[in-house]
Request: fold
Amino acid sequence: MDHVEPIAKSCRPGYDFFLASICLEPKEVLTMSKHRRPYAKAFRQQMVDLVLSGRSPADLAKEFEPTAETIFNWMAQAEREASTRYDGLTSAERHELIRLRSENLQLKIERQILARAAGCFAPECHSSPDKGTNSG
Reply:
């Protein structure tokens, strides 16, 4: 059998690879995306409108790329936005929650910085000469 050269030069010698030719450079492996880009808002709205007009999410999933579960999720969010469903947050509430969590984190960090600074300066504040002694 002919010797098969690995695609990548970085394969470690001594390892018994089943197929040496499938060894890839690390940068090639890392560039593969695990998630797809979010669907455009207009596309999501079109899917919601099609469901509201009577098409089923399963039929739309067969015709278009998103899964039926994804389309169900879009429907649920559209109902939350329209205040006809109350089991989750609207987009505005979600954005406000993200902003408040970020602000809360920033305040915690600032509080820690101030506490450390106060700890550094506290000995200087409390080390005043005694009233009964003359220092000079």
